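Researcher: I've been going back and forth with a colleague about how Outer membrane protein assembly factor BamD might be arranged in three dimensions. Neither of us has a model we trust, so I'd like an independent prediction. The organism is Paludisphaera borealis, in case that matters for your notes. Sequence below.
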Amino acid sequence: MLRAAALRSLGALAVVGGLSGCQSFSVPLAQWRSSYDSGLAKKLTKDELAGAKSEKIADSNSLLERWLRPIGARSLKSDSSGDDAKRNPSTLVLGSDGWKPFAKPATNPDAQKELDDAIQLFQQGKLPEAEKAFAGIAKNRKETPWGEKAQFYLAETQYQRKSYVASHESFERLIADYPGTQYLDKLVSREYAIAQIWLSQSDPKAKPETKMPWYSHFNGQQPLIDTRGTGLKALEHVRHHDPTGALADDSVMQIADYHMASEDYESAAVYYDQLISDHPKSPFLQKAQLAAIDSRMKGYIGPEYDGEGLEKARELVKQTMASFPDRQADTEHLYHTLDLINDQEAERTYKVGAYYKKIGKVASAEFYFGKIPQRWPNSPWTVKAKVELAQLAKMPRKATLPSKILTQPGANDPYYSAGGGQMGGMGGMGGMGGGMGGSPGGMM
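Model: Here is an independent structure prediction for Outer membrane protein assembly factor BamD. You can compare it with whatever you and your colleague have in mind.
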């Protein structure tokens, strides 16, 4: 009873949080919804799984033949052309519904009349009647040219009626059932427009006329909860369905900016990097490079943690300077960023030296403290490093013998174990442990 009551309370909080737009609740939920999106990968049907188990792919003559003749294509029944359609891959063409033998376009006067009547209703502005007609054709004429066109018009009719949730789902059904659909450009543009509508609901800079009333969560204009997360999913669909299209870089940039505004700097850096690598001719290239540097600088949380982001930021600074050498204002900002990166790396090196000094490794401490005046002579950490070097010069030094494993033949191989030519089971590990235990400072 207590568990059921707790689950009901959590469900109520989810609805309230989604309707009220609470930042502390909706941001993680939006990120989770955009990350776990089953719509980006179509699962195999039962027929496809059964066909994969019943056929032996290894029986194909070559890798090229297996690529040209997938499982579904080899299971096709021979048509009027005889067995040539099965044996000769050149008779197969890729259509909106998969690989099929080349054939003349089918004709079906009844299906065409149904579709024409539905389109006439759409053109006359009778959208409810048109939506019902298109839904029936898309269901009854599935995997046919009339079913594909009806599915597109169904989604378009729902969009015109401002039923954005149903429209988005219908567009996703269109791309799932007809991967090579001829309406890809229109589908992508509509999903992008729907994403803009949903994301504007939580954007404080959006125009007032773009805001929808609270009850729009219940009439199909907005999702019931997590409008922003569903908007991010729509943007993911845009870049996934048409990765080289005109709206792909816009979608990546908006997703990255969203994560940046939500202070999820790691996710933002990933999307900025994708735009830089996948869309080198995008008008957002320089903005993405500068934002990628900024996200890594803000994502760096101190010398005690991983500093890989600083190295990546340094590479991006050099790349941006080489790509846009004539941007004087940005160049000055980038030089300032380089100074910050150098200062952070000097601090990291100082912390490592301080650690070795603390545990009594004088030589190791001198090595790291000595790097700072050489690599960063103008850094404020140079003065502190010189003070530490002066103190280390007066400290006693202990001779450190090398580990036993390093004195054996094949010592350049850290996994070498004498006797068997390979690691000698527990004995080899024991020898390694003994070597390291006998000289704790040998590996320092």
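Researcher: What would you highlight for our discussion?
Model: I'd start with this: Residues 328-358 form the longest helix (31 residues). After that, consider the following. Residues 12-24, 56-61, 73-89, 418-444 have pLDDT under 50 and may be disordered.
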